[in-house]
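note to self — DONT lose this again. spent like an hour looking for the file last time. sequence + predicted structure for the chain T wanted, 217 res
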Amino acid sequence: MRTNMNRKLAGPLAATFALALGACGSTNMENRSLYSVKQPVIERANYTIDVATSADGLPLAEQQRLAGWFEGMDLRYGDRLSIESAVDNPGVDEDVAALAGRYGILMSNGAPVTEGFVEPGQARIVLTRSTASVPNCPDWSHTQERNPMNATNPNYGCATNGNLAAMVANPEDLVEGQKGTGETIVTTSTKAIRAYREQAPTGAAGLPEVSSQEGGN
């Protein structure tokens, strides 16, 4: 009889255990690594202004208008400037590059696709700006949730990644870092080594004379 009762109870116990495991599996805390789920997201936006051109470049009035637009847009490091026009005009390129150079911005080759057409006798200046943010941070939605799998809390990394996204000078560097030239300048790379080797030892000049008498020299 006892054996039969054990067999009869085995079915309900197994079903109950399966339901408990199913409830645990439904939790949103499934990240068991030390990598944060919340990562910076880079968004790009294009801003445009159409300016009238001449055979020699940008008229003075258009240069002033473009300079005011740059100031209003708070042109800064990380921004990308490009020119879209139906006809290449080196004078326009030089005038726009000179205005952008006041902010330390270099012109980029190739303009992104924008809405509308550029009218003849005009040029479209395209400002591409990237921003970095960490969506849904902070995330305190799972602070009271059971964590039987010892998973990493979804809020983990929000502070670090949020500060990184807020402080990075050029958000594009989070997508692809700055590329080096591949050249090694020997004089720069060995400067610290040479200074260490050529520095005289601190005791080379001998120890200073110190008197044991009070007030002595």
